[in-house]
Design brief:
The chain has 2 domains: 83 residues, Four Helix Bundle (Hemerythrin (Met), subunit A), CATH 1.20.120; 125 residues, Heat Shock Protein 90. 55% of the residues lie in helices and 19% in strands. Strand 4 and strand 5 form a beta hairpin. Helix 1 runs antiparallel to helix 2 and helix 1 crosses helix 3. It comes from Ramlibacter henchirensis.
Length: 221
């Protein structure tokens, strides 16, 4: 009894440690994405200020700038709230696999490029609903574990297909020619035991080799 309780506690600690490490690794990319959403507002605001400083402001142009700021502010607020869900996911929320994958690739592409990896996705349309928190956690965790112990240049290709009641996502690392990159990490590496613990906690099947990983996400319809 005590040994089973201890094992469960150890598993929980490993999962929490992995989640913390993953968020630390994603923090810079999340911050960069939030700034990217807010930057256009500042640019339009500067343009509006210049127009208002003119001796005879064109009211039509001023109105146009105000309308743009209003639209950009609403879009930025929505985008920022969505980015925050990476850190505080909604329990039970689902999302189309292709949408989560697009978000993940967009979030990580800059980081991977800096480390010498070209992150690419062949998935264009796969709207099967999966657990959003599980996919947003396991996709980046597996991508990082696949590349953390490797030096670039290399290509990381993401593919996906539906199989019965799961969506199978395949991640493949392919070496490419070019000048080598030093793999500098912003925080410690993500390990495969941690990814396995995260997958088990979310009922997601994981398999991996040195240069490949597969994740089977249950379809939640």
């Amino acid at each position: 009894m005590n040994s089973s309780v201890s094992s469960a506690q150890n598993s929980l600690m490993l999962v929490e440690s992995a989640r913390y490490a993953l968020l630390r690794r994603l923090a810079f990319s999340i911050r960069h994405q939030m700034v990217a959403h807010l930057q256009p507002i500042g640019m339009v605001t500067e343009l509006l200020e210049r127009r208002l400083r003119s001796p005879s402001p064109d009211l039509a142009q001023v109105h146009d700038s105000v309308a743009k700021i209003n639209g950009l502010s609403k879009a930025a607020a929505q985008d920022t709230l969505d980015v925050i869900t990476w850190m505080a996911p909604e329990p039970g929320a689902t999302a189309p696999l292709d949408a989560v994958l697009k978000d993940t690739v967009t979030l990580l592409r800059g980081n991977f490029s800096f480390r010498g990896f070209a992150l690419k996705s062949d998935v264009e349309s796969l709207p099967k609903p999966v657990g959003r928190a599980a996919a947003r956690m396991l996709l980046p965790a597996a991508l990082l574990a696949l590349t953390d112990t490797v030096e670039g240049p290399a290509e990381v290709l993401v593919t996906a297909q539906t199989r019965e009641d799961v969506v199978l996502v395949d991640l493949q690392l392919r070496r490419t020619q070019g000048e080598s990159f030093e793999n500098q990490l912003s925080y410690r590496a993500i390990t495969w035991p941690e990814v396995r613990a995260l997958a088990a906690a979310e009922d997601v099947e994981l398999s991996h080799t040195e240069d490949r990983a597969s994740l089977a996400f249950p379809i939640l319809e």
